[in-house]
Amino acid sequence: MADTGDRPISGIFGKVHLLHKQAVAGMPNAVQDALQFLKEARSSNPDNPILKAYHGSTMLLMARDETKPLDRLRWADSGLKLLDEAVNADSDNAVIRLIRGRSSFKLPEKQFQRSSTTIEDYKFVIDQERLGNQILDHQDYLRLMYETGELYYKIGQKQTAKNYWTSLKNKTSDSDFQRLLNMKLAQVEEQDYVEPEAEVKKPMSILISEAARVTGNELQYWANQFKQQEEPKKAEEPEPQPRGLNKRRRRRRRS
Questions:
Q1: 164, 169, 133, 124: which is closest to 147 by C-alpha?
Q2: Where are the stretches annotated Disordered (predicted)?
Q3: pTM of the predicted structure, to 2 decimals
Q4: What is the mean pLDDT of residues 31-54?
Q5: CA dist list (Å): 8 to 2, 56, 71
Q6: Best CA proximity match to 59, nearest among 90, 91, 88, 24
Q7: Is it true that domain 1-99 has CATH number 1.25.40?
Q8: According to the model, what pLDDT value does residue 10 have?
Q9: Among 9, 170, 175, 182, which residue has the least CB neighbours within 10 Å?
């Protein structure tokens, strides 16, 4: 049983945030631990919107890990219901809006139709950041801008997606992020992305490490590009000779 005891609400928030972070990262038993703690915490704070938001988000993590389709759908619906209730209770709370937005970002649009709501949440947080009410570091802010573009692209508003990604090009000097943005902008224009020839290539291991924040398709694209460039180099390398072969050849010549 979770030990919420007589903790002040600030202490409960700290524990919830830690458990939720571990659950998002996929640590063993973290989702169940977070869910149990939130049930106990909300039993004495049933109307607290932040706890309700974390509870709803954790239910979506349960849906993420569930293998049975019907159970997955039930967890997702229950989680979204709590998230919406939390926002309705305190719609000006940027933390709650961020929790709901981040929790809904990867949901399939066909089944849940949450992209427009997530855009509203993300834009609210972005506006708060611009007003100086900062809850994000610089990298998370850029990520939120990028994902907002992804959401607009998902619902067919390509020009708005392009505007977000174009504005990001002036906000970062990170070469990998710039490459990703160029690729996405080419995708909007339905053009093939061309890797700049003058750019210095990095080893595959470094690239993957730096690009860990990028989701599947982009990372796979970069991996394929490097693989294609490295294969011709391997073909040009001389085939290694079996150990001792050169010595035997020298002996034959002497005899």
A1: 164
A2: 226-255
A3: 0.72
A4: 95
A5: 15, 21, 34
A6: 24
A7: yes
A8: 73
A9: 170
